Amino acid sequence: MAGKLLGRFSQSHNNAIIDITVDNAMFSETTCPLTWIEDHAFHYLYNGDLWYYIRNGNSYEVIKHDANTGHHKIHPEGLSRSTIASHYTTMAGKLLGRFSQSHNNAIIDITVDNAMFSGTTCPLTWIEDHAFHYIHNGNFWYYIRNGNSYEVIKHDANTGHHKIHPEEIVRVCTFNLRCGHADLRTSNKWERRRTILKNCLENMQPTIIGTQEGYPQQLNEILDDLNESSSCWSYVGEEITQWRTINAIFYRHDILSLISTNTFWFNEHPLTFGAAWGAIGSRGCTRAHFQHKLTDHPFIIYNLHLDYPSQNARHHSIPVLLSQINQSDNQIDNVIVIGDFNNWPEKIAGEIPVDELILLGQKASEIEQMKQAGFIDTYQHGEIPSFNGFQSTGYGPKIDFVWISSNSIYRVEGETKIDEFHDNNGCFPSDHFPVYADLVHIS
To answer: In this predicted model, what pLDDT tens digit does every residue of 323-347 receive, in sequence order?
Structure first.
């Protein structure tokens, strides 16, 4: 969030001052009148100079107008450490998402470090000068001012009030990338999709991304894009198939510590590269064991890509997965399984209605086995296709999953999402929609 708002301005609602701030901490604890220029920009007067904030995606670019030098962009990271130390106040639960609090028809980007609310527009209800609440996914979320920040309180009908620590939430995404060597002579070639995918991930703000079909060069380019603004991303994974694709697990190494990682394959000898059971090529899974740096909570991610079109190969692959989980991890309750399950009917004769495909996908052996083993699909909002074929409407069953176990030490916060992000020309980053869930440790 380059130039994200971090300080106090006198934008008010029912006499309540909203803490809009800028990463450039020199403005914290100041109260300056805002003047809205248009829906996406405002300015205010500070120390004799005009400062402009122009929305750029989910953040604001900072422009200073000096009477002598004119306009120039401010790069907040250029401030001295002493300046930051003297002004910076930790913003626990600071606002990071879109709410429909408006000024002259402009929506202010108030958000929560918990990125689960980014891109949502929810009506605010002010309770008193220092607090507001809104309804999200059927629950009341309270924001209570504590100094220059807001503490986040969730009210659940079953459990009552409990404080949410946004920095503890892990946003886990699965994303079939569509291999970079495909579609070279079409508008869906990787060279074009790369920027769209970069913008999609910047908008999503995940903590972990499990990818499928990525080539080494493609994955390195994604890593470069993720680290463009701050070098906080790494990935693990090795070549799974004869086509050199990798089931990569990208992760925020400033938030998570990598304890161990390994790869296995779906065949009779899982530690050996090779295909089995009629698969068209070798298929495998990347395992990564992480520990959250803030909470010390451990968890294990499995990222897989099952075969298509062989239903027999998929049917035999799940027991291999479950065996590897049982051998490697003492407790299934800290395991998360993500990936492309390719749970299509083996033979699709002609055009099958989407509703019928969805039903067949739900009953696929690979999905039934996951449920019987105690895993729960985090997406609970009805069946929506996650394969799109580069079209605006998906087709077929939901084949991309984020699973947690029924006795998981994690719970799902907010709404799991199938992200239909595309650019202004209607072009998609992949032929799959990314699917993500926000998970919180509850033990």
So the answer is: 999 998 777 889 999 999 999 987 6
426: left (phi over 0), alpha (psi -120 to 50) or beta: left
pLDDT digits (tens, 9 = 90+) for 201-250: 999 999 999 999 999 999 999 999 999 988 999 999 998 878 899 999 99
| The pairing of beta strand 208-212 with beta strand 170-176 | parallel
Number of H helices, E strands in the chain: 6, 27
Q: Assess contact for 151 and 163: CB atoms under 8 A.
A: yes
pLDDT at 116: 39
Tokens representing 359 are 């039903």
Report residue 352 CA to chain centroid gap. 32
- Among the ranges given (150-154, 183-187, 189-193, 290-294), the one the predictor scored with the smallest mean pLDDT: 150-154
- pTM more than 0.90: no
Q: What ranges do the domains of the chain cover?
A: 12-166, 169-441
Phi-psi domain of 350 (left: phi exceeds 0; alpha: psi -120 through 50; beta: other): left
Which pair of tokens denotes residue 11? 């934008």
Q: 216-226 and 190-204 are packed helices; what angle lies between their axes, rounded to 10 degrees?
A: 40
Q: Are 126 and 34 in contact (CB under 8 A)?
A: no
User: Is 169-441 a domain of CATH 3.60.10.10?
Assistant: yes
Asked if 387 and 420 touch (Cβ cutoff 8 Å), the reply is no
Strand, coil or helix: what is 323?
A: helix
Q: Is the pLDDT of residue 115 over 50?
A: no
